[in-house]
């Protein structure tokens, strides 16, 4: 037994008495505030990140996707109303132009 850890004697325990240290034990941090740490209020809101402007290509792609979605919805409505394929194509082409 070393420092109060382990068995007094390994006899009868089915082990050889070898003690391993726990390599994955994380010691708890102390909550002491020192002069080197910033006060909590000084770090609010920023989270250490700067705001980035959105990528213009991504915004343009998203805008085109929204237009394409509206055209698909219009195409489905026109098909349900019984328009022919050529009439649907004409109406969709007219919507794309405007």
UniProtKB/TrEMBL annotation:
Stretches assigned to the CWF21 domain: 59-94
InterPro entries per UniProt: CWC21 (IPR051372), mRNA_splic_Cwf21_dom (IPR013170)
Signal peptide segment: none
One Gene Ontology term, aspect cellular component: spliceosomal complex
Compositionally biased spans, kind Polar residues: 10-20
A Pfam family annotated for this UniProt entry: cwf21
Residue segments, region Disordered: 1-20
Main location: nucleus
Keyword Transmembrane helix: no
GO biological process: mRNA processing; RNA splicing
Subcellular location: Nucleus
Keywords: mRNA processing, mRNA splicing, Nucleus, Spliceosome
PANTHER family: SERINE/ARGININE REPETITIVE MATRIX 2, SERINE_ARGININE REPETITIVE MATRIX 2
Family: Belongs to the CWC21 family.
Protein known as: CWF21 domain-containing protein
Native organism: Gossypium barbadense
């Amino acid at each position: 037994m070393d420092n109060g850890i382990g068995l007094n004697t390994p006899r009868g325990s089915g082990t050889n008495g070898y003690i391993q240290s726990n390599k994955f034990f994380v010691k708890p941090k102390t909550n002491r505030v020192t002069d080197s740490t910033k006060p909590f209020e000084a770090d609010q809101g920023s989270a250490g990140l700067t705001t980035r402007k959105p990528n213009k290509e991504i915004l343009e792609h998203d805008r085109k996707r929204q237009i394409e979605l509206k055209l698909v919805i219009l195409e489905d409505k026109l098909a349900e109303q019984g328009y022919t394929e050529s009439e649907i194509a004409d109406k969709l082409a007219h919507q794309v132009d405007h």
